[in-house]
Design brief:
The protein has 25 helices and 19 strands. It is α/β, with parallel strands linked by helices and about 600 residues long. The protein has a seven-stranded mixed sheet, sandwiched between helices.
Length: about 600
Protein backbone atom coordinates (compact mmCIF):
# COMPACT_ATOMS: atom_id res chain seq x y z
CA UNK A 1 0.00 0.00 0.00
CA UNK A 2 1.05 3.61 -0.36
CA UNK A 3 -0.11 6.95 0.85
CA UNK A 4 -0.36 10.21 -1.03
CA UNK A 5 0.01 12.05 2.25
CA UNK A 6 2.20 15.12 2.15
CA UNK A 7 3.26 14.42 -1.41
CA UNK A 8 0.21 16.30 -2.65
CA UNK A 9 0.75 19.87 -3.70
CA UNK A 10 -0.71 22.19 -1.08
CA UNK A 11 -2.86 24.31 -3.34
CA UNK A 12 -2.07 23.96 -7.02
CA UNK A 13 -3.10 26.68 -9.38
CA UNK A 14 -5.72 25.99 -11.98
CA UNK A 15 -5.00 24.84 -15.50
CA UNK A 16 -6.81 26.56 -18.35
CA UNK A 17 -7.22 24.89 -21.71
CA UNK A 18 -9.09 25.71 -24.87
CA UNK A 19 -10.01 23.90 -28.04
CA UNK A 20 -7.12 24.03 -30.53
CA UNK A 21 -6.35 27.39 -28.95
CA UNK A 22 -4.18 25.89 -26.26
CA UNK A 23 -4.08 27.51 -22.84
CA UNK A 24 -2.27 27.24 -19.57
CA UNK A 25 -1.92 28.76 -16.13
CA UNK A 26 1.07 29.68 -14.05
CA UNK A 27 1.37 30.45 -10.37
CA UNK A 28 0.69 34.10 -11.07
CA UNK A 29 -2.20 34.11 -13.48
CA UNK A 30 -4.57 32.33 -15.82
CA UNK A 31 -4.56 32.69 -19.56
CA UNK A 32 -6.21 31.38 -22.67
CA UNK A 33 -4.18 31.63 -25.84
CA UNK A 34 -5.22 31.18 -29.43
CA UNK A 35 -3.40 31.29 -32.71
CA UNK A 36 -3.60 35.08 -32.71
CA UNK A 37 -3.29 36.50 -29.18
CA UNK A 38 -3.62 35.53 -25.56
CA UNK A 39 -6.62 36.59 -23.47
CA UNK A 40 -6.67 36.90 -19.72
CA UNK A 41 -10.08 35.75 -18.57
CA UNK A 42 -9.90 35.03 -14.84
CA UNK A 43 -10.51 31.57 -13.44
CA UNK A 44 -12.50 29.75 -16.10
CA UNK A 45 -11.60 27.82 -19.22
CA UNK A 46 -13.38 28.67 -22.42
CA UNK A 47 -13.78 25.87 -24.92
CA UNK A 48 -15.67 25.40 -28.15
CA UNK A 49 -15.84 21.64 -27.62
CA UNK A 50 -18.92 19.84 -26.40
CA UNK A 51 -20.09 16.37 -25.51
CA UNK A 52 -18.10 13.39 -26.70
CA UNK A 53 -15.65 15.58 -28.64
CA UNK A 54 -14.63 17.11 -25.34
CA UNK A 55 -13.91 13.70 -23.83
CA UNK A 56 -11.62 12.79 -26.73
CA UNK A 57 -9.22 15.65 -25.97
CA UNK A 58 -6.76 14.59 -23.23
CA UNK A 59 -6.29 18.22 -22.20
CA UNK A 60 -9.99 18.52 -21.35
CA UNK A 61 -10.85 15.01 -20.26
CA UNK A 62 -11.44 14.83 -16.50
CA UNK A 63 -12.96 11.36 -16.26
CA UNK A 64 -14.98 11.35 -13.05
CA UNK A 65 -13.62 14.80 -12.20
CA UNK A 66 -16.42 16.79 -13.83
CA UNK A 67 -18.76 18.46 -11.28
CA UNK A 68 -22.46 17.82 -11.95
CA UNK A 69 -23.13 21.34 -13.23
CA UNK A 70 -20.19 21.05 -15.64
CA UNK A 71 -21.53 17.74 -16.95
CA UNK A 72 -24.80 19.46 -17.78
CA UNK A 73 -23.15 22.51 -19.29
CA UNK A 74 -20.76 20.55 -21.49
CA UNK A 75 -23.12 17.77 -22.54
CA UNK A 76 -21.16 14.94 -20.94
CA UNK A 77 -23.73 13.83 -18.37
CA UNK A 78 -24.28 10.13 -18.95
CA UNK A 79 -21.02 9.87 -20.92
CA UNK A 80 -18.94 9.40 -17.76
CA UNK A 81 -19.65 7.27 -14.67
CA UNK A 82 -22.21 8.86 -12.30
CA UNK A 83 -19.88 9.08 -9.30
CA UNK A 84 -19.15 12.74 -8.55
CA UNK A 85 -16.25 13.60 -6.27
CA UNK A 86 -16.10 16.92 -4.44
CA UNK A 87 -14.27 19.34 -6.72
CA UNK A 88 -11.28 19.74 -4.42
CA UNK A 89 -10.97 15.97 -3.90
CA UNK A 90 -11.49 14.74 -7.47
CA UNK A 91 -7.89 14.86 -8.63
CA UNK A 92 -6.62 13.38 -5.36
CA UNK A 93 -9.02 10.44 -5.56
CA UNK A 94 -8.21 9.83 -9.23
CA UNK A 95 -4.51 9.92 -8.51
CA UNK A 96 -4.94 7.34 -5.76
CA UNK A 97 -6.76 5.04 -8.15
CA UNK A 98 -4.16 5.51 -10.88
CA UNK A 99 -1.16 4.89 -8.66
CA UNK A 100 -2.75 1.84 -7.04
CA UNK A 101 -3.09 0.31 -10.49
CA UNK A 102 0.40 1.49 -11.49
CA UNK A 103 2.04 -0.28 -8.58
CA UNK A 104 0.04 -3.43 -9.34
CA UNK A 105 1.58 -3.72 -12.82
CA UNK A 106 4.00 -6.62 -12.76
CA UNK A 107 6.65 -5.42 -15.21
CA UNK A 108 8.19 -2.06 -16.16
CA UNK A 109 6.82 -2.40 -19.70
CA UNK A 110 3.31 -2.94 -18.33
CA UNK A 111 3.73 0.19 -16.24
CA UNK A 112 4.86 2.07 -19.33
CA UNK A 113 1.82 1.00 -21.33
CA UNK A 114 -0.52 1.82 -18.48
CA UNK A 115 0.85 5.28 -17.70
CA UNK A 116 1.17 6.14 -21.41
CA UNK A 117 -2.49 5.23 -21.82
CA UNK A 118 -3.31 7.71 -19.08
CA UNK A 119 -1.34 10.40 -20.91
CA UNK A 120 -3.43 9.71 -24.01
CA UNK A 121 -6.68 10.07 -22.04
CA UNK A 122 -6.15 12.69 -19.35
CA UNK A 123 -3.03 14.84 -19.45
CA UNK A 124 -3.79 16.84 -16.30
CA UNK A 125 -4.07 13.66 -14.24
CA UNK A 126 -1.02 12.16 -15.95
CA UNK A 127 1.20 15.14 -15.20
CA UNK A 128 -0.06 15.50 -11.65
CA UNK A 129 0.85 11.85 -11.02
CA UNK A 130 4.21 12.34 -12.73
CA UNK A 131 5.08 15.35 -10.60
CA UNK A 132 3.98 13.77 -7.33
CA UNK A 133 5.53 10.36 -8.05
CA UNK A 134 8.39 11.37 -10.32
CA UNK A 135 10.90 9.03 -8.69
CA UNK A 136 8.63 6.09 -9.51
CA UNK A 137 7.35 7.19 -12.93
CA UNK A 138 10.36 8.93 -14.52
CA UNK A 139 12.35 5.65 -14.83
CA UNK A 140 9.31 4.21 -16.62
CA UNK A 141 8.58 6.93 -19.17
CA UNK A 142 12.29 7.54 -19.67
CA UNK A 143 15.50 5.63 -19.08
CA UNK A 144 15.79 2.78 -18.44
CA UNK A 145 12.29 1.49 -19.35
CA UNK A 146 11.76 3.71 -22.38
CA UNK A 147 14.45 1.68 -24.13
CA UNK A 148 12.31 -1.46 -23.79
CA UNK A 149 9.27 0.49 -24.93
CA UNK A 150 11.06 1.71 -28.05
CA UNK A 151 12.15 -1.81 -28.90
CA UNK A 152 8.50 -2.88 -28.66
CA UNK A 153 7.02 0.33 -30.11
CA UNK A 154 5.35 -1.21 -33.16
CA UNK A 155 3.67 -3.80 -30.92
CA UNK A 156 2.42 -1.46 -28.18
CA UNK A 157 1.50 1.50 -30.41
CA UNK A 158 -1.98 2.86 -29.59
CA UNK A 159 -2.33 6.36 -30.93
CA UNK A 160 0.05 8.90 -32.47
CA UNK A 161 1.68 11.65 -30.43
CA UNK A 162 3.57 14.47 -32.07
CA UNK A 163 4.48 14.58 -35.76
CA UNK A 164 6.27 12.31 -38.20
CA UNK A 165 8.29 13.67 -41.13
CA UNK A 166 9.68 11.06 -43.50
CA UNK A 167 11.94 10.90 -46.51
CA UNK A 168 8.79 10.49 -48.59
CA UNK A 169 7.60 13.91 -47.43
CA UNK A 170 10.32 15.87 -49.24
CA UNK A 171 8.80 18.96 -50.79
CA UNK A 172 5.77 18.86 -48.48
CA UNK A 173 7.14 19.72 -45.03
CA UNK A 174 6.42 23.45 -45.22
CA UNK A 175 2.75 22.56 -45.64
CA UNK A 176 2.77 19.63 -43.20
CA UNK A 177 3.80 21.76 -40.22
CA UNK A 178 0.43 23.50 -40.46
CA UNK A 179 -1.31 20.20 -39.74
CA UNK A 180 -0.28 20.70 -36.13
CA UNK A 181 -3.17 22.54 -34.41
CA UNK A 182 -1.13 24.97 -32.32
CA UNK A 183 0.79 28.06 -33.39
CA UNK A 184 2.28 28.33 -29.93
CA UNK A 185 5.00 25.67 -29.77
CA UNK A 186 7.93 26.50 -27.52
CA UNK A 187 10.00 23.31 -27.46
CA UNK A 188 10.52 20.62 -30.08
CA UNK A 189 12.44 17.41 -29.40
CA UNK A 190 13.39 15.65 -32.62
CA UNK A 191 15.17 12.37 -33.32
CA UNK A 192 15.92 10.35 -36.43
CA UNK A 193 15.98 7.15 -34.35
CA UNK A 194 19.51 6.28 -35.44
CA UNK A 195 21.08 5.91 -31.98
CA UNK A 196 18.44 5.35 -29.34
CA UNK A 197 20.13 5.31 -25.93
CA UNK A 198 22.71 2.52 -26.19
CA UNK A 199 20.41 0.37 -28.30
CA UNK A 200 21.39 1.62 -31.73
CA UNK A 201 19.20 2.13 -34.78
CA UNK A 202 15.52 1.72 -33.83
CA UNK A 203 14.12 3.81 -36.65
CA UNK A 204 10.66 5.22 -36.10
CA UNK A 205 10.37 3.12 -32.94
CA UNK A 206 12.57 5.74 -31.30
CA UNK A 207 9.59 8.11 -31.04
CA UNK A 208 9.30 7.13 -27.37
CA UNK A 209 12.39 9.24 -26.68
CA UNK A 210 11.00 12.66 -27.73
CA UNK A 211 7.68 11.85 -26.06
CA UNK A 212 9.39 10.91 -22.79
CA UNK A 213 11.78 13.86 -22.88
CA UNK A 214 8.97 16.35 -23.34
CA UNK A 215 6.90 14.78 -20.56
CA UNK A 216 9.84 15.51 -18.28
CA UNK A 217 10.04 19.06 -19.65
CA UNK A 218 6.46 19.57 -18.46
CA UNK A 219 7.07 17.86 -15.13
CA UNK A 220 10.48 19.38 -14.45
CA UNK A 221 10.27 22.84 -16.00
CA UNK A 222 6.51 23.38 -15.95
CA UNK A 223 6.25 23.90 -19.71
CA UNK A 224 2.65 23.30 -20.66
CA UNK A 225 2.29 20.09 -22.71
CA UNK A 226 0.34 21.89 -25.42
CA UNK A 227 3.46 23.96 -26.07
CA UNK A 228 5.70 20.94 -26.65
CA UNK A 229 6.05 18.92 -29.83
CA UNK A 230 7.78 15.52 -30.22
CA UNK A 231 8.96 14.84 -33.76
CA UNK A 232 10.28 11.77 -35.55
CA UNK A 233 12.39 12.36 -38.65
CA UNK A 234 12.10 9.03 -40.47
CA UNK A 235 14.82 8.63 -43.07
CA UNK A 236 14.71 4.82 -43.03
CA UNK A 237 16.55 2.27 -40.91
CA UNK A 238 19.55 -0.02 -41.29
CA UNK A 239 18.28 -2.38 -38.61
CA UNK A 240 17.66 -5.72 -40.40
CA UNK A 241 15.14 -6.84 -37.78
CA UNK A 242 12.99 -3.78 -38.46
CA UNK A 243 13.38 -4.04 -42.22
CA UNK A 244 12.01 -7.58 -42.03
CA UNK A 245 9.28 -6.78 -39.49
CA UNK A 246 5.88 -6.84 -41.19
CA UNK A 247 4.33 -4.56 -38.56
CA UNK A 248 7.15 -2.00 -38.43
CA UNK A 249 5.54 1.45 -38.49
CA UNK A 250 8.30 3.37 -40.26
CA UNK A 251 9.86 3.41 -43.71
CA UNK A 252 11.17 -0.09 -44.35
CA UNK A 253 14.09 1.08 -46.45
CA UNK A 254 17.79 1.75 -45.89
CA UNK A 255 18.68 5.04 -44.24
CA UNK A 256 19.38 8.04 -46.39
CA UNK A 257 22.94 9.29 -46.18
CA UNK A 258 24.98 12.16 -47.53
CA UNK A 259 23.30 14.95 -49.46
CA UNK A 260 19.92 13.19 -49.53
CA UNK A 261 19.88 12.99 -45.72
CA UNK A 262 20.95 16.60 -45.35
CA UNK A 263 18.20 17.76 -47.71
CA UNK A 264 15.52 16.11 -45.55
CA UNK A 265 16.93 17.57 -42.34
CA UNK A 266 17.29 21.05 -43.83
CA UNK A 267 13.77 21.10 -45.23
CA UNK A 268 12.46 20.06 -41.83
CA UNK A 269 14.49 22.75 -40.03
CA UNK A 270 13.37 25.48 -42.41
CA UNK A 271 9.72 24.41 -42.16
CA UNK A 272 9.83 24.48 -38.36
CA UNK A 273 11.64 27.83 -38.38
CA UNK A 274 8.92 29.30 -40.60
CA UNK A 275 6.02 27.90 -38.54
CA UNK A 276 7.44 28.39 -35.03
CA UNK A 277 10.31 30.93 -35.33
CA UNK A 278 10.83 31.23 -31.56
CA UNK A 279 10.77 27.52 -30.76
CA UNK A 280 13.77 25.74 -29.28
CA UNK A 281 14.80 22.57 -31.12
CA UNK A 282 16.46 19.83 -29.09
CA UNK A 283 18.28 17.22 -31.16
CA UNK A 284 18.06 13.82 -29.52
CA UNK A 285 19.70 10.44 -30.18
CA UNK A 286 21.21 11.16 -33.59
CA UNK A 287 24.06 8.88 -34.68
CA UNK A 288 27.68 9.90 -34.11
CA UNK A 289 28.21 10.66 -37.78
CA UNK A 290 25.44 13.27 -37.75
CA UNK A 291 24.93 14.53 -34.19
CA UNK A 292 27.89 16.91 -33.86
CA UNK A 293 27.81 17.86 -37.52
CA UNK A 294 24.17 18.96 -37.40
CA UNK A 295 24.68 20.80 -34.12
CA UNK A 296 27.57 22.81 -35.55
CA UNK A 297 25.68 23.45 -38.78
CA UNK A 298 22.53 24.83 -37.16
CA UNK A 299 23.74 26.17 -33.82
CA UNK A 300 24.08 29.74 -35.11
CA UNK A 301 21.05 29.55 -37.44
CA UNK A 302 18.32 28.52 -35.03
CA UNK A 303 17.84 28.21 -31.28
CA UNK A 304 18.89 24.61 -30.68
CA UNK A 305 21.05 22.24 -28.67
CA UNK A 306 21.89 18.56 -28.58
CA UNK A 307 21.18 16.98 -25.22
CA UNK A 308 23.34 13.91 -25.85
CA UNK A 309 26.36 16.13 -26.45
CA UNK A 310 25.78 19.30 -24.44
CA UNK A 311 23.28 18.13 -21.81
CA UNK A 312 25.34 15.06 -20.96
CA UNK A 313 28.43 17.24 -20.69
CA UNK A 314 26.64 19.65 -18.35
CA UNK A 315 25.51 16.95 -15.96
CA UNK A 316 28.81 15.06 -16.07
CA UNK A 317 30.76 18.21 -15.22
CA UNK A 318 28.47 18.98 -12.28
CA UNK A 319 28.98 15.42 -11.06
CA UNK A 320 32.76 15.75 -11.39
CA UNK A 321 32.69 19.01 -9.42
CA UNK A 322 30.74 17.35 -6.60
CA UNK A 323 32.87 14.21 -6.70
CA UNK A 324 35.90 16.42 -6.08
CA UNK A 325 34.05 18.10 -3.22
CA UNK A 326 33.27 14.68 -1.77
CA UNK A 327 36.96 13.77 -2.12
CA UNK A 328 37.79 16.72 0.13
CA UNK A 329 38.78 19.43 -2.34
CA UNK A 330 37.58 22.82 -1.12
CA UNK A 331 38.64 24.58 -4.31
CA UNK A 332 37.14 21.96 -6.57
CA UNK A 333 37.39 24.04 -9.74
CA UNK A 334 41.15 24.31 -9.29
CA UNK A 335 41.34 20.63 -8.35
CA UNK A 336 39.60 19.80 -11.63
CA UNK A 337 42.73 21.01 -13.44
CA UNK A 338 44.80 18.38 -11.64
CA UNK A 339 42.69 15.37 -12.65
CA UNK A 340 43.45 12.94 -15.46
CA UNK A 341 40.42 11.76 -17.43
CA UNK A 342 40.09 8.56 -19.43
CA UNK A 343 36.89 8.77 -21.47
CA UNK A 344 35.68 5.58 -23.09
CA UNK A 345 33.61 6.45 -26.12
CA UNK A 346 34.92 8.97 -28.63
CA UNK A 347 31.59 9.63 -30.32
CA UNK A 348 29.37 12.66 -29.95
CA UNK A 349 28.51 12.08 -26.28
CA UNK A 350 32.10 11.32 -25.24
CA UNK A 351 33.42 14.36 -27.08
CA UNK A 352 30.66 16.45 -25.53
CA UNK A 353 31.66 15.44 -22.01
CA UNK A 354 35.34 15.97 -22.76
CA UNK A 355 34.63 19.39 -24.25
CA UNK A 356 32.58 20.54 -21.28
CA UNK A 357 35.24 19.46 -18.75
CA UNK A 358 37.97 21.02 -20.89
CA UNK A 359 35.99 24.29 -21.06
CA UNK A 360 35.75 24.29 -17.26
CA UNK A 361 39.52 23.79 -16.96
CA UNK A 362 40.10 26.79 -19.21
CA UNK A 363 37.69 28.84 -17.08
CA UNK A 364 39.78 27.81 -14.05
CA UNK A 365 42.97 29.16 -15.59
CA UNK A 366 44.52 26.52 -17.86
CA UNK A 367 45.22 27.13 -21.50
CA UNK A 368 43.34 24.84 -23.87
CA UNK A 369 46.62 23.13 -24.75
CA UNK A 370 47.29 22.45 -21.06
CA UNK A 371 43.76 21.20 -20.54
CA UNK A 372 43.87 18.82 -23.50
CA UNK A 373 46.88 17.06 -21.95
CA UNK A 374 44.55 15.92 -19.14
CA UNK A 375 42.43 13.73 -21.48
CA UNK A 376 42.79 10.29 -23.03
CA UNK A 377 39.95 9.20 -25.30
CA UNK A 378 39.37 5.54 -26.11
CA UNK A 379 37.12 4.12 -28.82
CA UNK A 380 36.48 0.59 -30.08
CA UNK A 381 40.02 0.48 -31.52
CA UNK A 382 41.65 1.60 -28.29
CA UNK A 383 43.32 4.89 -27.40
CA UNK A 384 43.22 7.67 -29.96
CA UNK A 385 47.00 7.78 -30.27
CA UNK A 386 49.87 8.85 -32.47
CA UNK A 387 49.44 6.36 -35.31
CA UNK A 388 45.68 6.80 -35.67
CA UNK A 389 44.90 7.17 -39.37
CA UNK A 390 41.10 7.33 -39.40
CA UNK A 391 39.41 9.91 -37.24
CA UNK A 392 36.77 12.61 -37.53
CA UNK A 393 37.59 16.32 -37.64
CA UNK A 394 36.11 16.73 -34.15
CA UNK A 395 38.32 13.94 -32.77
CA UNK A 396 41.55 15.36 -34.16
CA UNK A 397 42.44 17.68 -31.28
CA UNK A 398 41.89 14.87 -28.75
CA UNK A 399 44.46 12.51 -30.30
CA UNK A 400 47.38 11.88 -27.95
CA UNK A 401 50.42 12.19 -30.18
CA UNK A 402 52.63 11.23 -27.22
CA UNK A 403 50.97 7.83 -26.71
CA UNK A 404 50.83 4.76 -28.89
CA UNK A 405 47.57 4.28 -30.77
CA UNK A 406 45.22 1.46 -29.81
CA UNK A 407 46.26 0.95 -26.18
CA UNK A 408 43.71 -0.96 -24.12
CA UNK A 409 41.60 0.76 -21.46
CA UNK A 410 43.60 -0.82 -18.65
CA UNK A 411 46.89 0.23 -20.26
CA UNK A 412 45.65 3.78 -20.68
CA UNK A 413 44.38 3.96 -17.09
CA UNK A 414 47.78 2.80 -15.84
CA UNK A 415 50.00 4.90 -18.10
CA UNK A 416 47.97 8.09 -17.72
CA UNK A 417 47.68 7.74 -13.94
CA UNK A 418 43.98 8.36 -14.46
CA UNK A 419 41.90 9.66 -11.55
CA UNK A 420 38.58 9.54 -13.40
CA UNK A 421 37.08 6.95 -15.74
CA UNK A 422 34.00 7.96 -17.73
CA UNK A 423 32.04 5.62 -19.98
CA UNK A 424 29.79 6.55 -22.91
CA UNK A 425 30.24 3.47 -25.08
CA UNK A 426 26.93 1.66 -24.79
CA UNK A 427 28.91 -1.54 -24.16
CA UNK A 428 27.63 -3.23 -21.01
CA UNK A 429 30.31 -4.64 -18.68
CA UNK A 430 33.17 -3.09 -20.64
CA UNK A 431 35.25 -2.34 -17.54
CA UNK A 432 36.64 -5.40 -15.82
CA UNK A 433 37.96 -5.77 -12.29
CA UNK A 434 41.61 -5.26 -13.17
CA UNK A 435 40.85 -1.95 -14.90
CA UNK A 436 38.90 -0.55 -11.96
CA UNK A 437 41.48 -1.81 -9.45
CA UNK A 438 44.21 -0.09 -11.47
CA UNK A 439 42.23 3.13 -11.31
CA UNK A 440 41.98 2.66 -7.55
CA UNK A 441 45.75 2.46 -7.21
CA UNK A 442 46.17 5.82 -8.95
CA UNK A 443 44.34 7.89 -6.32
CA UNK A 444 42.52 7.68 -2.99
CA UNK A 445 39.04 8.51 -4.32
CA UNK A 446 38.75 7.32 -7.94
CA UNK A 447 35.86 8.75 -9.95
CA UNK A 448 33.91 6.08 -11.84
CA UNK A 449 31.10 7.30 -14.12
CA UNK A 450 29.54 4.51 -16.26
CA UNK A 451 27.09 6.82 -18.06
CA UNK A 452 25.73 4.58 -20.82
CA UNK A 453 21.98 3.91 -20.93
CA UNK A 454 19.96 1.84 -20.31
CA UNK A 455 21.16 -0.08 -17.24
CA UNK A 456 22.14 -3.14 -19.27
CA UNK A 457 24.59 -1.00 -21.25
CA UNK A 458 26.44 0.46 -18.25
CA UNK A 459 30.20 -0.13 -18.45
CA UNK A 460 30.10 -1.54 -14.92
CA UNK A 461 27.66 -1.59 -12.02
CA UNK A 462 27.90 0.58 -8.94
CA UNK A 463 28.44 -2.52 -6.78
CA UNK A 464 31.38 -3.58 -8.94
CA UNK A 465 32.95 -0.12 -8.75
CA UNK A 466 32.62 -0.09 -4.97
CA UNK A 467 33.81 -3.65 -4.37
CA UNK A 468 36.79 -3.37 -6.73
CA UNK A 469 38.03 -0.19 -5.00
CA UNK A 470 37.32 -1.26 -1.41
CA UNK A 471 34.46 1.24 -1.20
CA UNK A 472 36.60 4.25 -2.20
CA UNK A 473 35.10 4.93 -5.64
CA UNK A 474 32.80 7.88 -6.22
CA UNK A 475 30.18 6.58 -8.62
CA UNK A 476 27.56 8.11 -10.89
CA UNK A 477 25.71 6.31 -13.66
CA UNK A 478 23.35 7.16 -16.49
CA UNK A 479 20.54 4.92 -15.26
CA UNK A 480 19.87 4.52 -11.54
CA UNK A 481 21.61 1.98 -9.33
CA UNK A 482 20.55 1.22 -5.76
CA UNK A 483 22.69 2.19 -2.79
CA UNK A 484 25.20 -0.36 -1.53
CA UNK A 485 26.53 -1.22 1.91
CA UNK A 486 30.26 -1.84 2.16
CA UNK A 487 31.94 -2.64 5.48
CA UNK A 488 29.02 -1.16 7.36
CA UNK A 489 28.95 2.09 5.35
CA UNK A 490 26.08 2.96 3.02
CA UNK A 491 27.39 4.15 -0.36
CA UNK A 492 25.05 6.17 -2.57
CA UNK A 493 25.68 6.09 -6.32
CA UNK A 494 24.63 9.25 -8.09
CA UNK A 495 22.52 9.31 -11.20
CA UNK A 496 23.92 11.69 -13.80
CA UNK A 497 20.48 12.26 -15.22
CA UNK A 498 20.26 14.84 -17.99
CA UNK A 499 16.88 15.77 -16.53
CA UNK A 500 18.79 17.92 -14.04
CA UNK A 501 19.86 20.35 -16.77
CA UNK A 502 17.98 20.03 -20.06
CA UNK A 503 14.64 21.35 -18.71
CA UNK A 504 16.54 24.38 -17.42
CA UNK A 505 18.34 24.90 -20.73
CA UNK A 506 14.98 24.78 -22.45
CA UNK A 507 13.14 27.05 -20.02
CA UNK A 508 16.06 29.48 -19.80
CA UNK A 509 16.26 29.71 -23.59
CA UNK A 510 12.52 30.33 -23.83
CA UNK A 511 12.37 32.99 -21.12
CA UNK A 512 15.41 34.85 -22.42
CA UNK A 513 14.74 34.20 -26.12
CA UNK A 514 18.48 33.64 -26.31
CA UNK A 515 20.14 34.12 -29.67
CA UNK A 516 21.80 30.73 -29.18
CA UNK A 517 22.55 28.16 -26.48
CA UNK A 518 26.08 29.30 -25.69
CA UNK A 519 28.98 27.49 -24.05
CA UNK A 520 28.67 29.95 -21.20
CA UNK A 521 25.05 28.93 -20.62
CA UNK A 522 26.09 25.28 -20.49
CA UNK A 523 28.88 26.03 -18.02
CA UNK A 524 26.53 28.15 -15.88
CA UNK A 525 24.11 25.22 -15.77
CA UNK A 526 26.86 22.84 -14.60
CA UNK A 527 28.03 25.23 -11.88
CA UNK A 528 24.49 25.89 -10.66
CA UNK A 529 23.64 22.18 -10.50
CA UNK A 530 26.82 21.55 -8.51
CA UNK A 531 26.19 24.46 -6.16
CA UNK A 532 22.62 23.30 -5.53
CA UNK A 533 24.08 20.49 -3.43
CA UNK A 534 25.00 21.78 0.03
CA UNK A 535 28.19 20.74 1.81
CA UNK A 536 26.17 18.67 4.28
CA UNK A 537 24.64 16.65 1.49
CA UNK A 538 27.99 16.17 -0.23
CA UNK A 539 29.51 14.95 3.04
CA UNK A 540 26.63 12.46 3.31
CA UNK A 541 27.77 10.97 0.01
CA UNK A 542 25.30 12.53 -2.43
CA UNK A 543 26.70 14.24 -5.51
CA UNK A 544 23.35 14.75 -7.29
CA UNK A 545 19.94 15.86 -5.99
CA UNK A 546 17.04 13.51 -5.54
CA UNK A 547 14.86 13.30 -8.62
CA UNK A 548 11.84 14.46 -6.61
CA UNK A 549 13.57 17.83 -6.18
CA UNK A 550 13.54 18.43 -9.93
CA UNK A 551 11.38 21.57 -9.89
CA UNK A 552 13.53 23.25 -7.25
CA UNK A 553 16.62 22.22 -9.18
CA UNK A 554 15.15 23.61 -12.39
CA UNK A 555 14.32 26.94 -10.76
CA UNK A 556 17.88 27.24 -9.42
CA UNK A 557 19.63 26.22 -12.63
CA UNK A 558 17.34 28.25 -14.91
CA UNK A 559 18.00 31.41 -12.90
CA UNK A 560 21.73 30.87 -13.40
CA UNK A 561 21.25 30.40 -17.14
CA UNK A 562 19.23 33.61 -17.35
CA UNK A 563 21.98 35.49 -15.51
CA UNK A 564 24.47 34.15 -18.03
CA UNK A 565 22.41 35.33 -21.03
CA UNK A 566 22.39 38.79 -19.47
CA UNK A 567 26.14 38.63 -18.91
CA UNK A 568 26.78 37.65 -22.53
CA UNK A 569 24.14 40.01 -23.91
CA UNK A 570 22.45 37.25 -25.92
CA UNK A 571 18.97 37.60 -24.37
CA UNK A 572 16.31 39.09 -26.63
CA UNK A 573 13.66 39.30 -23.90
CA UNK A 574 13.77 41.56 -20.86
CA UNK A 575 15.23 39.75 -17.83
CA UNK A 576 15.30 41.04 -14.23
CA UNK A 577 18.74 41.84 -12.88
CA UNK A 578 18.03 40.93 -9.25
CA UNK A 579 18.17 37.29 -8.13
CA UNK A 580 14.87 37.41 -6.27
CA UNK A 581 13.08 38.73 -9.35
CA UNK A 582 14.78 36.15 -11.54
CA UNK A 583 13.60 33.32 -9.33
CA UNK A 584 10.09 34.75 -9.24
CA UNK A 585 10.05 34.94 -13.04
CA UNK A 586 11.05 31.28 -13.33
CA UNK A 587 8.72 30.10 -10.56
CA UNK A 588 5.71 31.96 -11.95
CA UNK A 589 6.28 30.48 -15.40
CA UNK A 590 5.91 26.88 -14.20
CA UNK A 591 2.60 25.23 -14.97
CA UNK A 592 1.00 23.10 -12.25
CA UNK A 593 -1.57 20.57 -13.49
CA UNK A 594 -5.05 20.95 -12.01
CA UNK A 595 -8.61 20.89 -13.31
CA UNK A 596 -10.06 24.21 -14.43
CA UNK A 597 -13.74 25.16 -14.64
CA UNK A 598 -14.85 24.58 -18.22
CA UNK A 599 -17.34 26.86 -20.00
CA UNK A 600 -18.49 26.25 -23.54
CA UNK A 601 -18.53 29.22 -25.94
CA UNK A 602 -18.94 29.63 -29.68
CA UNK A 603 -15.57 31.27 -30.06
CA UNK A 604 -12.58 32.18 -27.91
CA UNK A 605 -12.22 35.94 -27.31
CA UNK A 606 -8.87 37.50 -28.05
CA UNK A 607 -7.03 39.97 -25.88
CA UNK A 608 -7.87 43.54 -26.68
Amino acid sequence: MFSLGSRLLCKPSTVYNSCHRRSFSTHSGSFVTDHRKGAKIGEVVLTTKHGYDLLLDPLFHKGTGYPIEERERLGVRGLVPPCVFPTKEALKMQMKRVMTRFFQCESPLQKYSYISGLQDRNEVLFYRCLIEFIEEIAPIIYTPTVGLACQSYSNIFRRPRGMYFSANDRGCMHAMVYNWPSDDVEIIVVTDGSRILGLGDLGVNGMGIPVGKLALYSAGAGIHPSRTLPIMLDVGTNNPELLNDSIYLGLAQPRLTGAAYDEVVDEFIQAVKERWPKALIQFEDFSNENASRLLHKYRHQILCFNDDIQGTGCVALAGIFNALRLAGHKNYKKALCEQNFVICGAGSAGLGVASQICYAMVQAGLSEEEALRRFWLVDAKGLLGAERQQFTPLQSKWIRRDFKDGLSIEEVVKMSKATALIGLTGVGGLWDESTIRQLGTNCVRPIVFPLSNPTSKAECTAVQAYEWTDGRAIVASGSPFVQHEHNGKVLIPGQANNMYTYPSLGLGSILSQAKMVSDGMLYAASCALSEYMTDDRIEAGRIFPRVREIRKVTEHVTAAILRQTLKEGINQSAIPIFDEDLRRLVHNRMWIPDYGTLVRVDSIPSRS
